[in-house]
Amino acid sequence: MIFQYSPFFFPLLLAAAVTSALVYFGWRNRTNPVAAPFTLTMAAATLWTAGYAVQLCSADLSISLFLNTIEYLGIVTIPLAWLLLVLRYTGRGQYITLRNITLLSIVPALVILFVATNQFHHLFYSAEFPEQISGSVVWIFVRGPLFWLHVAYSYLLLLVALVLLASRYSGSPSVYRRQIALLVVASSLPVIVNIFYIASIDPVPGLDLTPVTFTVVGILIAMGLFRYQLFLTLPVAYPQVFSAISDGIIVADTSNRILDLNPAARQLSHEPGELIGRSLPACFPQLSQFVAGGGCVTENHQEVAIHGNGAPRYYDAVCRQLGVPGQLPTGHIFILRDITDRRQTLDALASAHRKLNLLSSVTRHDMMNKITGLTVYLDLVKSTHDPVMHAVYLQRIDEIARMIQEEIAFTRDYQEMGVKSPAWQDLSACIANAKSQVDMGCISVTEECAGIELYADPLLVKVIINLLENAVRHGGSQVSTVRISCRRSGDSLNVACEDNGSGVEEADKSQLFSRGFGKHTGLGLFLSREILKSTGLTIHEDGIPGEGARFEITAPAGSFRCTGRT
After folding, report:
1. Alpha-helical regions (H) of 33-144
2. Greatest alpha-carbon span in the chain
3. What is the mean pLDDT of residues 147-161?
4. 435, burial (CB in 10 Å: exposed 0-12, middle 13-18, buried 19+)
5. Which of 299, 330, 374, 471 is close enough to 323 for a disulfide, judged by CB 3.0 to 4.6 Å?
6. Residue span of the structural domain in which 401 resides
7. How far apart are CA 528 and CA 534, in angstroms?
8. DSSP 8-state secondary structure symbol assigned to residue 144
9. pLDDT at 412 over 70
10. Between these two residues, 79 and 240, which has the higher pLDDT value?
11. Which residue has the higher pLDDT, 102 or 305?
């Protein structure tokens, strides 16, 4: 090898040191999505720069050709790595797949092969000759047809990256616009210098100054790292955000044609096929009230109901104008937020409050009647001296006091129905909770409701307790099993609680859930019906007298769901 001095060795060495430092920075921040392609870009630039620095210090053709091949490993990698970096930076990482990288790497791999084997075909370089530049020998390579194929492909990748950066510039916050502008300048500088070199209009003919520009590129990127948090805060990919929003979003023009909509909005329309470009009222008739009469001038809210396969879902629909202030609107944006659960909760609470008011008046009346009766029997006790009647009166006093006590306990449970909001409750967990609170004796309890949830008042467990107590108290000596099961019936769910006891007499079934009916206070089944009724659930008894009682709770569509948990 023939060594020689080159005045460009140290500037190139400085450029290699700068890009090496950026390789280290990228490696330390490798958890960042942009770190991998950034590190690859800087490593390729380091290889190119360092190889060219050593090449300029050798006057030997064979060594120059070998180092030139090494440099091309970095030269062909930079455009591809930069494109991958821009895809990551602009939120298009879904396009970075093994298949796409492999396809994009075919031309660079062929370029390396053609450069390494050029002496056999001379299609990449047609000739080589030495030239004296600044006191040292530099080998000049005459470009062949494959060289221009490499140049066209590399510039194409860089152009695509530039277009992607420019498309993200508009509409981005100022900090991201500064980042994007800095990246555009950093990527354009080596390209411009390289174009001058290829066009033979560079300041030093025959000398490629492109690697030297990486020093400036490194300084620009370092400034971006410390001043604009380059690669540490990445611009949000707004199309991905638009698609990920759970609220339905529809964009329409002034002619009420759909311009865009997110997946959540697509699920709300029953119209088949592509919706973009079609009439908004035709695809979403529930929004017709917004677009009638020229559309919404100011922000407008309406509650709309959209019917699906089951019960209707309720949405808070918002309409807003699109456009620049002071100019004519360019369209409208509609936002639909699901408020079904909130509406169910408010309806249930309103129903509970109405019932509490009714309970208050009824209970007050009943209490006064019982207290009046209690006062009468107390007076009779005071006025009688007959021991037999005295015992009868005391027994009646005790019964009335117990009834008052149980009625007060009932009012406490009933009051709780209006305190807590309804919620989704695991039916199996409620049954297990109820079993732990009731002394079932020798009666076995089985359930077949795994993975089922009911939208009900938090006192749902009280309903199950009342049904289990009913089997213990009224099932008779023959009752030995209680079975709770669930089955679908059309759009509804039926939850059956059945025992093998004495059952309910046919004459009693019509009054079974009436307040005050029964052998005790007659409040348990009445309370159960009210608890279920607050969220639209119903209960009835359809067992066969003498064969056992069977209580069936019916949950309409929208008030039950299958979670799949067992």
Report:
1. 35-56, 61-75, 77-89, 98-104, 106-116, 118-121
2. 142
3. 94
4. middle
5. 330
6. 340-420
7. 10
8. -
9. no
10. 79
11. 102
In one letter, which amino acid is 1? M
pLDDT of residue 70: 94
pLDDT at 446: 93
- The answer to whether 504 and 541 have CB atoms below 8 angstroms apart is yes
> What is the rounded distance in angstroms from the CA atom of residue 553 to the CA atom of residue 489?
12
Residue with tokens 């500088």: 189
Cα→Cα distances 454→64, 108, 420, 526, Å = 79, 61, 16, 20
DSSP annotation string for 248-308: EEEEEETT-BEEEE-HHHHTT----S--TTSBHHHH-GGGHHHHTTS--SS-EEEEEEE--
Identity of residue 204: V
Closest C-alpha among 394, 483, 495 to residue 444: 483
CA–CA dist 82, 89 (Å, integer): 10
The whole model's pTM is what?
A: 0.53
Instruction: Give pLDDT, residue 78.
Output: 93
Q: Is residue 197 part of a domain?
A: yes
Last residue of a domain, one of 387, 420, 453: 420
Does residue 298 form part of some domain? yes
pLDDT higher than threshold 90 for residue 186 = no
**Mean pLDDT on 493-518:** 83
Q: Considering 200, 227, 254, which residue would you say is the last residue of a domain?
A: 227
Q: Classify each residue of 405-415 as buried b or exposed e, where b means 16 or more C-beta atoms within 10 Å of its C-beta.
A: eebeebbebbe
Residue 363 CB neighbour total at 10 angstroms: 16
Residues 218 and 21 sit within 8 Å (Cβ to Cβ):
yes
Mean pLDDT to the nearest integer, 281-286: 86
Which of residues 247 and 514 earns the better pLDDT score?
247
Assess if residue 47 is contained within a domain. yes
Give 405's pLDDT tier (boundaries 50, 70, 90): confident
Stretch (H or E) spanning 136: strand 136-143
Tell me, yes or no, whether 233 lies in a domain. no
Q: Which residues contact 387 (CB under 8 A, 6 or more apart)?
A: none
Listed ranges 236-240, 375-379, 515-519; the one with the highest mean pLDDT: 375-379
Give me the pLDDT at residue 462, please. 82
How many structural domains comprise the chain? 4
How far is C-alpha 526 from the geometric centre of its chain's CA atoms?
A: 42
Percent helix / strand / coil, the chain, rounded to 5: 55, 20, 30
Q: What is the CATH number of the domain that holds 58?
A: 1.20.1070
